[in-house]
Amino acid sequence: MSLIFRLVFLASLLSLTATLVNRVALAQNALTASPHRTIRLTSQKIILPFGDKVFAGNNEVAKIANEHCLLCHSRGMIDTQPPLTLETWKKEIDKMRTAYGCPLRADQTDSVAEFIAHAAGSPVAGGN
Amino acid sequence: MNSFKLSNAKSPVPSASGPLPRRTFLKVAAGLVAGGILGRSLPAFAAKLIQLPFENGSRELVRFPQKGEMILLRERPPLLETPFEVFDKGVFTPNDQFFVRWHLPQIPDSIDVNTFRLRVDGHVRTPTEFTLEEILRQPQVELAAVNQCSGNSRGFSSPRVPGGEWGNGAMGNALWTGVTLKSILDRAGVLPGAVQVRFNGLDTGEVPETPLFMKSLDLDHAMDGEVMVAYGMNGTQLPMLNGFPLRLIVPGWYSTYWVKMLSHIEVLDKPDDNYWMHTAYLIPDTPGATMAPDAKGVKMVPINRMVPRSFITNLRDNATVRRGAPIEVRGIAFGGDTGVKSVAFSSDGGTTWQNAALGKDYGRYSFRRWQTSFVAKQPGDYKLMVKATNSNSLSQPATSTWNPGGYMRNVIEQVTVRAA
Q1: Beta-strand relationship, B357-358 and B368-375
Q2: What pTM was computed for the model?
Q3: Does the pLDDT of residue B142 top 50, yes or no?
Q4: What's the ipTM?
């Protein structure tokens, strides 16, 4: 075997080894289901929109609504509600406070409910 | 019609808008101090509006990561509805337009397939942590099943109720691939005395007081060999927002049980009394889950099996049709917790009915396509109606049900077209 042939052979071997190593590395990052349907799982990363719309106003209740209501959800939740009575808004806000841990004081519920009901972008239903 | 052509295997490209704050309280407060507006609106949010057919139904069309054009209800936690025309394109709903519904705001923005673990513990012989590789190695099962939000169509409730104000697009049909829940539980070894199995995902609240979103199934149900832990959706991995890497599939039951980013399975030796089983997602314990809006003291139970529904997908309300020639009408139907027995169509507001032809059967939990035709002999309005009956002979009701959660709407749908 000539020296050149041996060098070429060695280079091929190295290249093959590199390919194999590469395959293994890929396989570690792409898990595959078998046998009858191939589903590859690859690590994922996304960046979700935050929903930055806040309530206008410099008064205390606007500040409270921005800091408390928008803590856990964006304004879309409020803006897409149907016309609701003030009583229903109070119930909803009380649910946020008691069931979901919204750090609002009980005595703030009424003023926030009135503020939200008018800011919601839908008319307040009559009756209350 | 084939899901595999529709399914979308986009690479995980982050949004071009740059990083946005995730920890809200201080940042919202800081933003307010700094001038009231955080000012990071996404370029993709250039408002393209549509109107859902109820009061305050104006909605933006948006694109979220790994998703196509969707109807926006709420950015955080995301509520995204499938535009209804998608349902006319095929029996399977494309992953990138499959509806999205999260309850809690802290959703992981990255998942590493090598470090992710599914933990199984509680009332079991051997508490076990599964890698994704171990799950992929187990015998694979596949099932076509409809995933529908309990409150799909809530916006049509009359009187209206608060909540996620969906049109009819909080539903979708996919071919799910995964392993049976039974095989996972068998590996851990359920101990005698177990009564329920509880599921939790990786999402959490903004404050520690927010109850973790956990749902439970009775042990018999969990072990029925149909409930599945899925890693595949229409032939590819799930989008992050639909629950990557693992989602619980509960065929025939409402989506509230289909826990996303499933990371913890806990076998319970007493019934689950956590908030999401005991207080939220309750329905009246009455036929059709209906009650009078002013009724008091109605017994409430956790929502469970789905009921039949059907939709016309190729004709919209107020569409103009040609007089004198056959008009094709087609759509989708599903039986709820069992298959579709028949789909009846009426072009005269429900006075007379004819059976539609049913499309290929992908299994009893799947959407089923249907098709028929009618001739509009006279000019004027035609009230088209469609009614599914399932294999248990349960039909869609002629009048709307009502409950305070806005759950389980399945009244016969109608579309009015004008013959000219």
Answers
A1: antiparallel
A2: 0.87
A3: yes
A4: 0.87
